[in-house]
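To whoever picks this up:

The nightly regression suite flagged 2-polyprenyl-6-methoxyphenol hydroxylase-like FAD-dependent oxidoreductase as changed. Nothing in the input moved, so I suspect the structure step. Input below, exactly as stored in the fixture:
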Amino acid sequence: MTAGRTAVIVGGGIGGLAAAVALCRRGWRVEVCEQAAQFTEIGAGLSLWPNALRALAVLGLADRVRELGAVEAGGGVRDRAGRWLARTDNVELEQRFGWPLVVVHRADLVRVLVEALPRKTLRPATTITGVHDEGDAVVVEHHHGSLRAEVAVGADGLHSTVRRLGRPDARPPRYAGYTAWRMITSRLPAPLTDGASNWGRGERFGYTSMPGNRAYCFATATVPAGGVSPDGEWAELHRRFGRWAGPIPTLLAAVAEDDVLRHDIYDLPPLSGYVSGRVALLGDAAHAMTPNLGQGACQALEDAVVLASCLDRAPDIASGLAGYDRRRRSRTQDVVRRSARLGAVGQWSWPPAVKARDLAARLTPNSATLRSMTPILGWKP
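Regenerated output under the current build:
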């Protein structure tokens, strides 16, 4: 354990908080700067796959998070009419990878991470204005002053200020070609037994169980970036998906009009490195990805425990950060590419291509699907 070292983490989301927990438990003194007034998350559900739960186990939090989440019997892909194209059994998933797929509310996961940190670690309402690497230390400037530490971590998301300041030549986030809606239902008349992603033509609608007999739902549509539905997003969802196969109409009926979130989907072109001097990027700031594999938060959790491990085991900061970059960059950028490919296929709209896609999915053995996910889900700290 390396005692007495210091780090400033910019961004109080899942990745930044997890990195703070990982470093604190290795004896580091950490401060987490978050521009929002509180450490919390708006949003909806979050899929935590076995690789994420292994990372949380390193932090000693996996069992607590699992208690707060829901574990379904299984899931998979259906067509618009509700016919199964591919299925995944959660029992088989757990047998193969040691953990099931758990769905939690983002706010619940953030709360667990916050509660694992000393209160003095957290600096809400702190907007970063500069990051300066001075060779033997890094200075993080904010509206109230500055912080000096041995390491700074940019965990501040897709539009990262730390990335922009440290890598002004990096290519900006790129629009994936579709927008997404996310929502959580009220209590349902009957619990869901399986989750699914229903694929249509240029549109998808997915759902999965959450605690309290609720469901997390998401939908996508191929539209230009920056769009807003003139009569509201709730009405847009009912117009697009209200006649799809059950249980989708029932799920939409259980969503309050004000509880629909809409976000255009972006990912980040590959960076040449996640580290510059004493500054490291983590999570979406380093490798923002589309949500098609449910791996955005999972990869950020992996980043957090690997960063702490590399810094703890290396003889100096430079070699520790170099090890983090070496271990994380190729893996996460591969996940970005895989997720983008799956999303592109899921959004196909040309009827012959859709028919061929659905047939290929139906003919692919479930065991082959699980094997294809092994490089991602089989990760171990």
